Known about the structure:
The chain is α/β, with parallel strands linked by helices. It is built from ten helices and ten strands. The chain has a domain at 56-79 and 187-270: 3-Layer(aba) Sandwich (Rossmann fold).
Amino acid sequence: MHSARHNIQIHTVFLFILVWINYTIITFIMIEINNLYKSFGDNKVLSGVNLQINKGETIAIIGKSGCGKSVLIKHIVGLLYPDSGYVKVEGQRIDQLGMKELYKLRKKFGFLFQGAALFDSMTVGENIALPLTESQNEFSKSEIAGTIAEKLELVGLPDTENLKPSELSGGMKKRVGLARALVTNPTYILYDEPTTGLDPIMSDSIDSLIKELSEKIKVTSVVVTHDMYSVKNIADKVAMMYEGIIYFTGTPTELVDSKDQVIIDFIKRTNI
């Protein structure tokens, strides 16, 4: 009798541990990309991409031009749909969501465009406010103004609300673009070549900001870049695309130390 009760207790504890492990794994993996294929006519761009992006990490997606990095990012937010395979965000398959559900999910993403994509006719504050004014939620003017000031402070540009983009340097424009990406308090930020066109000092400044934001607000970041210096500075994990697949995943140190000839040739082209 005692032995049977003891066995039941052990079995219960074992089941609890299994449930806890599964729950931990499920909640830790925020974005799951499974066997993703995508072609445009005869041009095969994605040929079975597999990748997991964990909560709070900064992952850099690298690869030569035309390897499918931007196509992959568009699948994550449902701007493109796969020929086969799937993308899950927080357990939800993107290709199975209705427009209402997809719109709701997209609001969890902030996006920093390569050229910052600021409207020249608008002030800095008006540019940052766009996601709020276009939202279905109603915000008062004072709420919007407070949020703008908070995000500008976060990216190191306090009291610049009334400036025009023409009055800003390239690095400042990137910071304003990042403030706009942050204005909805996203869970994820997608960066498209954040240091392109910037001098080395300004590039280091943007890298430091990305790293700081990741640590301060615990956002999950996906960075598409050609800049291997940025990869070493900001990435927890690197995914290298080659011939339509994720050819390598690992830390920046593992990437640089790799003896694989494809990886060696790619790194050589970056002059790192």
